[in-house]
Design a protein that fits this description.
One of its GO terms (molecular function) is transcription cis-regulatory region binding. The chain is mainly alpha-helical. It folds into two domains: 90 residues, Tetracycline Repressor, domain 2 (Orthogonal Bundle), CATH 1.10.357.10; 145 residues, Tetracycline Repressor, domain 2 (Orthogonal Bundle). The chain is 72% helix and 0% strand. The protein has 14 helices and no strands.
Length: 250
């Protein structure tokens, strides 16, 4: 049996018929269906939405400015006016919909929070794409595509977003576990904690196949949040007891 590389697995996921069925191909939106209240300028908002759909489905290189303008219902010159060029639009599409990671860090890394409150705020960032519905799925798909068709933005997000978030959670756990400095086991714990949230998105196709009701319930996001919190606290508690049994040594 042939073993897929990670890149091969991601490529299979973004090209799978089931995932395509989950997120329909882009169509030209009418004024009635254009997202409201997300951007002060409707034309810019339509370009962002068109870019998200086209880039997620086709990738950066295969998407033309003419397609973007047609789907958004604007003149091609609007891309230059609002974003400078296609690369500028791609950057905005990649980073803007999910907000600033720094804001999420400020919520969960604040001093004075209990461990439970800190972890709940930490997982709130992972749950945000679920609350955005189709757009959230497209944001995840865009990142998966960026991994196998890199433009440099994924590397930037890792260094400027994901790594600071990791380091902030390491700091939170150092405080709550009474550690003066992190060790490798603590870094492993944070990777495992984040994996719970990441798998909600990378494993969405599988979850919908084996237990579709988990995402269909009206309170699905709230239930996922409670589940992540319980499992995360259990992992931290186990690590704390392991360290205590070892006399505080890694």
């Amino acid at each position: 049996m042939k073993t897929l590389s990670f890149a091969g697995l991601i490529k299979r996921l973004i090209c799978s018929p089931r995932l395509r069925a989950m997120v329909p191909p882009p169509t030209r939106p009418s004024a009635a269906t254009a997202p409201a209240g997300t951007e002060p300028d409707p034309a810019r908002a339509r370009l962002l939405r068109a870019g998200l759909r086209l880039f997620a489905h086709q990738g950066f290189a295969a998407t033309t400015t003419r397609e973007l303008a047609q789907v958004a219902g604007v003149n091609v010159a609007a891309i230059s006016y609002y974003f400078g060029d296609k690369a500028g639009l791609y950057r905005a599409v990649f980073f803007e919909p999910l907000g600033e990671i720094a804001d999420n860090i400020a919520h969960f890394a604040a001093f004075g929070l209990s461990l439970e409150d800190a972890l709940r705020a930490y997982y709130a960032g992972f749950l945000e794409p679920l609350q955005q519905g189709e757009d959230g799925q497209l944001c995840v798909k865009l990142r998966m595509r960026e991994m196998v068709e890199p433009t440099g933005l994924w590397v930037q997000e890792v260094h400027e977003g994901i790594r600071p978030m990791h380091d902030a959670m390491v700091g939170v756990l150092c405080r709550h576990l009474g550690l003066t400095a992190p060790d490798d086991d603590l870094h492993r714990l944070v990777v495992c904690l984040s994996a719970l949230g990441v798998h909600l998105h990378l494993g969405r196709d599988v979850t919908d196949a084996v237990a579709p009701q988990l995402h269909a319930a009206p309170d699905a996001v709230e239930r996922w949040g409670d589940c992540l919190l319980r499992q995360g606290l259990a992992m931290i508690d186990h690590e704390q007891r392991r360290r205590a049994a070892a006399g505080g040594t890694p």
